[in-house]
Amino acid sequence: MTDTVDTTNNAEEAPERPTAESGVIEVDAVEADAIDSELDSTARRAGSTDARRPSTNHVVVARTDVEWLGRYLLGTWADVRLAARDLTAKPEMQRIEGLSLDEHRQRVFGQLTLLVQNGQVHRAFPKSVGGEDDHGGNIAGFEELVTADPSLQIKSGVQWGLFGAAVLHLGTQYHHETFLPGIMSLDVPGAFAMTETGHGSDVAAIGTTATYDEQTQEFVIHTPFRGAWKDYLGNAAVHGTAAVLFAQLITQNVNHGVHAFYVPLRDPATKAFLPGIGGEDDGLKGGLNGIDNGRLHFDQVRIPRANLLNRYGDVAEDGTYSSPIESPGRRFFTMLGTLVQGRVSLDGASVAAAKIALTIAITYGNERRQFTAGSDTDEEVLLDYQLHQKRLIPKLATTYAASFAHEQLLTKFDQVFSGAADTDDDRQDLETLAAALKPLSTWHALETLQEAREATGGAGFLAENRLVGLRADLDIYATFEGDNHVLLQLVAKRLLSDYSRRFAKADFGVLARYVVEQAADRAVHGSGLRSLSQRVADFGSTARSVGQLRDASAQRQLLTDRVETMVAEVAAALRPASKLSKKAAADLFNLHQSQIIEAARAHAELLQWEAFTEAVDGPTGLASGMDDGTRVVLTWLRDLFGLGLVEKHLAWYLMNGRLSPKRAQAVGLYTERLSARIRPHAQDLVRAFGYGPEHVRAAIATGAEKARQAEARDYYRAQRAAGTLPAPEKKPGRTR
Amino acid sequence: MTDTVDTTNNAEEAPERPTAESGVIEVDAVEADAIDSELDSTARRAGSTDARRPSTNHVVVARTDVEWLGRYLLGTWADVRLAARDLTAKPEMQRIEGLSLDEHRQRVFGQLTLLVQNGQVHRAFPKSVGGEDDHGGNIAGFEELVTADPSLQIKSGVQWGLFGAAVLHLGTQYHHETFLPGIMSLDVPGAFAMTETGHGSDVAAIGTTATYDEQTQEFVIHTPFRGAWKDYLGNAAVHGTAAVLFAQLITQNVNHGVHAFYVPLRDPATKAFLPGIGGEDDGLKGGLNGIDNGRLHFDQVRIPRANLLNRYGDVAEDGTYSSPIESPGRRFFTMLGTLVQGRVSLDGASVAAAKIALTIAITYGNERRQFTAGSDTDEEVLLDYQLHQKRLIPKLATTYAASFAHEQLLTKFDQVFSGAADTDDDRQDLETLAAALKPLSTWHALETLQEAREATGGAGFLAENRLVGLRADLDIYATFEGDNHVLLQLVAKRLLSDYSRRFAKADFGVLARYVVEQAADRAVHGSGLRSLSQRVADFGSTARSVGQLRDASAQRQLLTDRVETMVAEVAAALRPASKLSKKAAADLFNLHQSQIIEAARAHAELLQWEAFTEAVDGPTGLASGMDDGTRVVLTWLRDLFGLGLVEKHLAWYLMNGRLSPKRAQAVGLYTERLSARIRPHAQDLVRAFGYGPEHVRAAIATGAEKARQAEARDYYRAQRAAGTLPAPEKKPGRTR
């Protein structure tokens, strides 16, 4: 059978349709020619005939092996994830809607103690203090908590991922022995006191000072003005009895920049602030109200010299400063670099939230009926409407891309933090990768939750269906642990510095045209500038035919070319900056800021696409044991993601002569067709996410809607059969 | 002075910058030539020189007359709006964050009684029952309530705009005399029982039945299955003692379609459900928790025959049905049409919410500093960053467009409901206009609130800064009173039927190329198909020069051409449907659903653009007494809106040969330049919205941030002056 799409549609449009599993469809393994003629046909949009010709005898049945794919998605730390999902399945770990601020805070604090009892939170700590030195596993387990309650994920992240991790990574043996046990056991709940009211993403400019007093061998912590109050700190409003505090280290009248200090905050017994310390409750927030965010200020508060977390910078008794890292700038970024795990885990948690959202919306969309279209009596299933497919299925593709990309990020993170691959370059690559992926996945989660909410109508607005609560909680993911735009700007700076390093001595005019060395044989690039496999000028000839758009190498070229060209253009535009005054250079940079950030976004999208491609037909994918049918479905999904990116940036491809108007029009048709093809597999593709009813917990995704629809249809069917249905006043003439 | 932009930037970049009022800039009244050469210059992006040449001796100072513009924005019902703002300024009318569900519901119910005491809610009712027959004024006042608490707006909308309005518009004298007094006084809080669990936007298919029993002269209200439970009804969970209920009217074994009935629900004293009636609380929602939404079901509940709201359909004692409207379809849409005011008021409330959001984000963006760029000591004001401008200023332009468009919608509404212009065509135009504008403004409000939230970082996430609460409340505006996509589909059907009516007998092949009669002299079109002022084929020659993009007629052509072409394409594609089976026709429609909805969206965007243009330099604008400086600023803003639409759909213009790649690139440069030019006026433009601190109520928009920034800068300045600022370890090399 070659008439793939029609077969599918027929199977889906029968009143009593089979499940996606039984509704398998057949497809040619090689389709380029066939799709070509399909797209050339003027009748293509009517869809009544399919001009596809078999170009090979090898026929593959498109299907989704849900169980296999589920395991594949679980990735390297599958066991940890499954254990974490067992835990998040327990009602006592889950959010209860409608709690008051205080009740929610207390509940989440109680859940943290359950995590400790359960041994869930110590994986990342050294074996010497009872941990497991398992960094990737730690994050994998941690990010799964988001399905129980994002407040639980973030509050435990504050305690162990920020407060504890700072003591671990910025402190030395004394700090580990002295402070980690209390942190790990939750005897000492703590805040991560970095952000100030006046300074968020610009940590280097914080105002709090820690001035060394040689006389008493103490640091004096001080808040010089209102803008330097620490702000938005989890655990600061109620529970925290200590903090890792970031302040400008001043000794011998020299400011050595931002360092971290261990600072007791409250009397553990009375919970009263210690002398010189004050604060405020940040109060109600848009979400994450299980966390007690608050503000802190310090009036000449003294702490022992030893409380400086001194791995990267130390002060001797006499006030002499020393550091293993000479450059203050590099030292600062090294210290901050240890905190990359926050971004890694937000990336993973956002992917998990998008998976929950799509599980809800696609399950409901597959059961809910609304409006009769092609029949007098049977209403249409929502997901059979083209628009509904267009709203949800590309988001499914992006979620798969983000999921595979996150697995790569987590692997990279584990390699660096385990020491398996821990050079400066590795660390920089990790930071760039995290800075690239976290913005995309956090925004994607918000967009997906919102689309799912709107696609489920009034039902989606009820708290019992979870979408609004998850969206409210994840809202802040877009700006914490680094504002998304600031992170993308970091990525762009890395791209520009990679670019200029490679061409430091070359003539620029030449470079702008010859964009970069051959790299067709290079596998996925974790970060940095992705190289183009051939000269831009040659591109037109290699993907002339419309059908080749679905070829992976054509997609790669289109996406890579865009990144390369944008980086080259920005680099050219900024080139005069070296000869300008600081002010004029800043103005020049500012004139190109949007362009710079757009280049970084393009790069991050390419990284997701590469990760998806690697998972499907790169070495990892080929070695995975994936069956051909599943590969067909995942390839459609990857194509939808890749061509969806091209469609999103279509104006760029047209303005820059990379696609002809005719080929550009084909892109939109393709993504529409691909969505329709994937539609019968959509339910299987969300089932493969592996979240059960105990994780999804949405009343509309339990099959209740299906039962209601069946009851209504049975009612009318019985009435019609019995002749008791009142006649309509006039036969309604619905479609002309 | 001709060097406009640089003057502005210099004024804005001084450390102690003047307010926008004093930082006036000068601009040529006629700029087309100048901008042309500016854009042709390769140095244009560096912005260091401005090649603009004066092409006229008439020099206008761009400025915003805030007081005048504020009055202009208030529109026809300025007095009502100002009175409503006095009311919403009162703390007892305002939302308190963090109330429990019950507390919030009780508070809002109490506020409704204050509205009654204040005489705010009866404007739309007839003079015969103590009202004022003032329909436009009623909506204007009502939509202002959103700034106090969206729950208050919507709960009062349920009581008087839906429940009361249904009795008024669907009932007759008996109902007015019997039921309106209790509704108006809030003695009878009531629900508007239309939506069912199984049917939202498809009201015609609801399952609840009202079967006439001649023996007792009663209607029997019945819920035949679970999907036919009434759902999401405000006032149903707790407060409602009656409802206007929509059900299939059955008499003499004929179903006459959906009609409305007045149904008592609860014992007014005990609040217990009356016999046969049951229900559930919808519980916590994503927002609007001051409203007690709930579900209702009916088991053979009997009501008197007279409780049928019988204006458009009646049942005699003997069970004979009669109606002044013969066609059941038209009757149904006439009954639903009386409810258009819900959509009108959501449109207006969404505009108000976007105004509040931008007032907060722009005020904060004008005070907040982050990162040093061009200086070692002074941090940049957020709104001086190009990206920040790009995030907020186009949204300011869209908000102005939506505000002017709403004023036109409200005027049309008032004309229809007052009877001043109340033909069938007028009613249809009103419904199409409301269906076009409500989706755009509700989505715009959500996007603006979200962008404002992210642009204000962690502060934006705190409830005290209002953005998250407003966003949560307005979320549902996108899908209630008609799902936005369903509404756009209604608009598209109107466009298609207008199109086919005009060309019913013409040969289609000709029509696809000649798109429509001359209409250059027609003013804004409230609805229906906007005509193109010349043949599409001619377009290329009329706007060949880049500079002409800013010409209003060029923008109109680009936007109109897109609507016309899309409608013609869809019409051509759907043409075979008349010869197909119902099923095949539905499939064909479905294949073009996205395209159809995109055409409607384009039409709605054009309507906003026309309204903006009319307000600036149409007859209304010219007669308004606007001074030239304000007109320059508003023209920039209108151009930013218009060219922003072209930029958003740039791929379409390129694929369809309407813009050359070079001209297309100019569009993006233009919107960037326009945002930068408007930037110094941004604060004035939000001040003109006229919302004071008592309406905005956001801690970050009070000037507190400005004071904090000043304190921090003073601190460092004093330390530097005194030589007490600790030296940096090394001179930081911030740029490069």
Describe the structure.
- Two copies of one chain form a homodimer.
- Chain A is built from 27 helices and 16 strands.
- The first copy, chain A, has three domains: 1-62, no CATH class; 78-338, Butyryl-CoA Dehydrogenase, subunit A, domain 2 (Beta Barrel), CATH 2.40.110.10; 342-687, Butyryl-CoA Dehydrogenase, subunit A, domain 3 (Up-down Bundle), CATH 1.20.140.
- In chain A, strand 4 and strand 5 form a beta hairpin.
- Chain A has 736 residues and is an alpha+beta fold.
- Helices cover 51% and strands 10% of the residues of chain A.
- In chain A, helix 4 (78-88) packs parallel to helix 6 and helix 12 packs across helix 20 (593-617).
- Chain A starts with a helix and ends in an 8-residue tail after the last strand.
- At the A-B interface, strand 8, strand 14, helix 11, helix 12 and helix 13 of A face strand 8, strand 14, helix 11, helix 12 and helix 13 of B.
- Strand 8 of chain A pairs parallel with strand 16 of chain B.
* Top-tier CATH class of the largest domain in chain A: Mainly Alpha
| CATH topology-level name of the largest domain in chain A | Butyryl-CoA Dehydrogenase, subunit A, domain 3
User: If you compute it from the alpha carbons, what radius of gyration of chain A comes out, rounded to the nearest whole angstrom?
Assistant: 28 Å
The end-to-end span of chain A amounts to: 35 Å
The greatest interface between two protein chains, and residues involved on each side, is: A-B, 123 and 123 residues
CATH architecture of the largest domain in chain A: Up-down Bundle
